[in-house]
Amino acid sequence: MSAPDARPAPKVSFVSLGCPKALVDSERIITRLRAEGYELTRTHAGADLVIVNTCGFLDSAKQESLEAIGTAMNENGKVIVTGCMGAEPEQIAERFPNVLAITGPQQYESVLEKVHLAAPPSHDPFIDLVPPQGIKLTPRHYAYLKISEGCNNRCSFCIIPKLRGDLVSRPLGDVMREAEKLVSAGVKELLVISQDTSAYGIDLKYAESSWRGQDYRTRFLDLSQALGELGVWVRMHYVYPYPHVDAVIPLMAEGKILPYLDIPFQHASPTVLKAMRRPASQEKTLERIRAWRSICPELTLRSTFIVGFPGETDEDFEMLLDFLDEAKIERAGCFKYEPVKGAAANDLGLPVVPNEVMAIRHKRFMEKQQQVSARRQKAKVGRRIQVIIDEMGTTVAKGRSKADAPEIDGNVYVSTKRPLRPGDIVSVRIDRADAYDLHGTAA
Ligand code: SF4
């Protein structure tokens, strides 16, 4: 039954751009809007307003954000901009002087304030239902779990600390309560994200925090142990190879958390890493990875790299290719260096790598990466592995193994006689391997 003075719910069209961290911000804003009775629409036309959550990390991402704002202005005209690009509002205001408001990253409250002004809520939050775990933009069976905001590192190519500030960790108890809610709502895989997961809790001096009546410290190891109690897949993203990460590897070997680490190495040459001012660049990374693999042979490493950073020589680049091989990085993304406005790297005075050289290095990197990946994939043929199902077709389901994160890694195509549902975890015999994908049969 609706209240006598109820007006139709205001409609909001939402565009979410950028990394998983931005996606989590979008989910938080949408959860609040839904709780206040707003409706989400898939098209800009007919919506009461549009919110664009922008990404401002690279110039190409900024371009994509500006285009999204342009489309929203043309198709609707009432636009609120938020996210990383909102930290530098001049660029947006110059090009789109009529946007309703521009707010920066994580400014959930100001986004909501602006929405209330432009399209006041018409429902009473007490009678609107929102699932207690919030609204998720990811499929129901997996969810991102953001453990901190900001970053204490100062990598020379990155402006995220300028945009998002220093590290602010969420106390372990808070993170775990959110994780528990997600699991009880049906999530089977948690993807832990932050700018620097291994630095979790440093700002809180690893403060004690309680969960399920037990005391934990707000730090990477304790978080991994606590998440390991939930009985779902737990995947760690954005970890740096600091010595304290060693203690988490046995949890992977015991099957408590997934044997998967996403470590954005960015390069392997000490000279380039130094110019990049990368965290943990002084660590003996190869030795560390070998030691990890001796404890947990199943460990999969995913990483991202940049080729063509100013000053990168042929020798530096060869070192990078050797590293891929020796460290057996089976999942890797490679980006051509792009200068970011406001980044310290622009003032290093190092020689710029010409575009043609950068393109050749990128191609050679991808070829090498494909070989490394294909070798590791081939070794899985004939084995039986666990696969989480993402989508069901008529006779073939699409899923992922423990070695594959959603959206960035490969897939496993599973032939099956019985219908499978997203989130099911099934045992699959691998029949065939491509460079990145696997094909198999469900038991
Ligand atoms: S670790 Fe480096 S690249 Fe990552 S957010 Fe922090 S400063 Fe940027």
Characterise this structure.
The protein is of the alpha/beta class. Helix content is 31%, strand content 22%. The strands form 6 sheets. A 5-stranded parallel sheet has the order 2-1-3-4-5, with helices on both faces. α11 packs parallel to α12. The protein is globular, with a radius of gyration of 23 Å. The termini are far apart. 44% of the residues are buried. Mean pLDDT is 90; it is low at 1-6. Residues 151, 153-155, 158, 160-161, 195-196, 279 line the site of iron/sulfur cluster (SF4).
Order of strands in the sheet with the most strands?
2-1-3-4-5
Which structural category fits the helices and strands? alpha/beta
Bound compounds, each kind once, are:
iron/sulfur cluster
Through-space gap between termini: 49 Å
Beta content comes to 15-25%
Count of helical segments?
A: 12
Gross morphology is globular
Overall average pLDDT: 90
Total beta-strand segments: 20
What would you report as the Rg, rounded to the nearest angstrom?
Answer: 23 Å
What proportion of the residues is helical, as a percent range?
Answer: 25-40%
Main sheet record:
5 strands, parallel
What oligomerization state is this entry in?
Answer: single chain
Which regions are unreliable across 5 or more consecutive residues at pLDDT < 50?
Answer: 1-6
Q: What structural keywords apply?
A:
disordered N terminus, binds iron/sulfur cluster, 443 residues, five-stranded parallel sheet, 12 helices, alpha/beta
